[in-house]
Write a structure and sequence with these properties.
six-stranded parallel beta sheet; 2 domains; alpha/beta; Rossmann fold
Length: about 400
C-alpha cells in the first residue's frame, strides 16, 4: 500500500493540477496502472479557511501548510496506532518540508516499524539562490534530520541533488526523477484545433513569480529595450493570483511603472485555461531566473507550442539537453533580445517544428513511474509497452519514437 500525503492545492499554483484527487497528475497515472494507494486526510482548509488564497507566503501559505500537514500527520499516526501500517507499506510525502514529520519517525520507532518513506525536495535552504536560503540559520538542522529519517528523496534536477548531497550527504538515497508532469491534461485544457494553426501574436509571456530570484527586473529591462525602439512586440505578465505578489517591494514598484507606461501588460487572476489561451496565442515564453529546477511554465509552454527562451545557466542547459537554440547568455540583455528577434523572425510554429521539440518536454510525463520504481512498488502494476518505452532518464539525450508521440496525442 502506498500512503500518499499530497501538497495543498492552489488554483494559482501548479499544486492544483499536481495534487488534485483522482484526476491530478499523480493519481491519474497511478489509477491507470492499478496502483493501490490511500490518500492521507487533506480536506481541511487550515486556519485561513480559504482553499485558493495565500495570506502568508509566496509558494505555499505558512498557516494553511501547517494545518494541512497537521491533519495528514494525525491521520498517519492514527493508522500507526491502529496497527494499519506495516513494513511493506510505502509513505510518500509530496513535499520534503513537512511540519510534524518527526512525529511519524517517533511513532514508527516506538512500534518497531520500518516502512519505506519518501519525499520530493522542491527547494532547500542550502541553495543560495532559493528564497529559503535566508531561513538556513534555523531550518538546516531540520532538513538534515528529515534526510536522515527518510528512505529516499526525489529531485527534479541533478544540480539540486548535488547541492543537497554536499550539505547533508546521503548520496545513496537521493534520486533524480525529473519534474512530475502530465501533458495530456495540459493539452486537454488548450484551445481546440491543431496547435500549429493557432493564431500567434508577436507576444512574449513571463509567468515566473515576481520574486528576486526570478529576476523580473531583467525581464522589464528587455521589454523596455523593445519599447524604446518602438518594436511592435507585446510583453505580458501572467498570474493566477488576484494581484502580483513579491518578496521585494521595489520590484512591484518597477512593475507598476512599466504597466502604467505601457511597456508590459499584466493579466491577473487567470484560470489555467485562460493562461493556456495566452500561451497558445503567443510566440515566446521568456525566463530569466537564477534557478527554476526544471520549470512547470517551460513544460506547459512546450505543450502549447510556445517557444521557450531561457538562460544558459545552472539547470537550464540540462533541462534542454544542451540544445543551445533555446538559450541566451545569462543576464545579457543584448543576447536575450537577439534570441527573441531570431525567434520572432523565424518560423517555429509549423507542425513539424513543434513536433521536433516536443520530446524535450514529453520526458517528464513519466516522472511518476521513475518515482514508483525508486520506491520499489512498480512490480505487478499494469505497466504497458507505452509506459516502459517512454520511461527514460529525463536528462539523457534520447528522442522519443513516433509511436509514443502518436499515442500521446500532442
Amino acid at each position: 500500500m502506498l500512503l500518499y500525503a499530497p501538497l495543498e492545492r492552489y488554483r494559482a499554483r501548479y499544486t492544483e493540477l499536481l495534487s488534485k484527487p483522482v484526476t491530478g497528475w499523480m493519481e491519474r497515472n497511478w489509477r491507470e496502472v492499478d496502483l493501490v494507494y490511500s490518500r492521507l486526510q487533506d480536506d481541511v482548509l487550515g486556519p485561513t479557511g480559504e482553499p485558493d488564497r495565500m495570506r502568508m507566503g509566496f509558494v505555499l501559505d505558512a498557516r494553511k501548510r501547517f494545518g494541512q500537514c497537521s491533519s495528514q500527520i494525525e491521520h498517519l499516526l492514527k493508522l500507526i496506532e491502529d496497527e494499519l501500517v506495516d513494513d511493506d507499506d510505502v509513505i510518500y510525502f509530496e513535499d520534503f518540508w513537512t511540519p510534524g514529520i518527526e512525529q511519524v519517525f517517533y511513532a514508527l520507532d516506538l512500534k518497531g516499524l520500518h516502512p519505506k518513506m519518501f519525499a520530493f525536495c522542491w527547494a532547500q535552504s542550502c541553495d543560495r539562490y532559493d528564497f529559503t536560503a535566508r531561513m538556513g540559520k534555523w531550518i538546516k538542522n531540520f532538513e538534515a534530520g528529515i534526510a536522515t529519517g527518510l528512505t529516499g528523496i526525489f529531485f527534479a534536477h541533478p544540480l539540486l541533488r548535488d547541492i543537497f548531497s554536499c550539505e547533508y550527504g546521503h548520496r545513496d538515497k537521493l534520486h533524480v526523477v525529473g519534474l512530475p508532469f502530465d501533458s495530456r491534461d495540459v493539452f486537454g485544457r488548450m484551445p481546440t484545433g491543431p496547435s500549429h494553426e493557432w493564431k500567434r501574436e508577436d507576444q512574449v509571456v513571463f509567468s515566473s513569480r515576481w520574486d528576486t530570484e526570478k529576476n523580473p527586473d531583467f525581464f522589464l529591462e528587455v521589454a523596455n529595450n523593445y519599447w524604446k525602439r518602438g518594436a511592435a512586440v507585446k510583453f505580458i505578465v501572467c498570474t493566477g493570483h488576484d494581484e502580483i505578489r513579491s518578496n521585494n517591494p521595489e520590484l512591484l514598484k518597477d512593475l507598476r511603472i512599466a504597466e502604467k507606461s505601457g511597456i508590459v501588460r499584466v493579466y491577473r487572476g487567470l484560470t489555467k485555461e485562460e493562461y493556456y489561451h495566452h500561451l497558445a496565442h503567443s510566440k515566446i515564453q521568456f525566463n530569466c531566473a537564477d534557478q527554476d529546477w526544471v520549470s512547470f511554465t517551460l513544460l506547459e509552454s512546450g505543450v502549447a507550442g510556445c517557444y521557450p527562451v531561457y538562460p544558459n545557466y545552472r539547470s537550464f542547459p540540462d533541462t534542454f539537453l544542451h540544445h543551445k537554440e533555446f538559450m541566451y547568455d545569462h543576464k545579457s540583455a543584448p543576447a536575450a533580445c537577439d534570441m527573441i528577434d531570431r525567434v520572432l523572425e523565424g518560423n517555429y510554429w509549423t507542425q513539424s517544428e513543434i513536433f521536433a521539440r516536443s520530446w524535450i518536454y514529453f520526458r517528464f510525463n513519466f516522472t511518476w513511474l521513475r518515482m514508483l520504481k525508486a520506491m520499489g512498488i512498480d512490480d505487478g502494476l499494469r505497466i504497458s509497452t507505452w509506459h516502459s518505452e517512454a520511461n527514460m532518464d529525463p536528462f539523457e539525450d534520447n528522442p522519443m519514437r513516433n509511436l509514443i508521440y502518436n499515442r500521446q496525442g500532442v
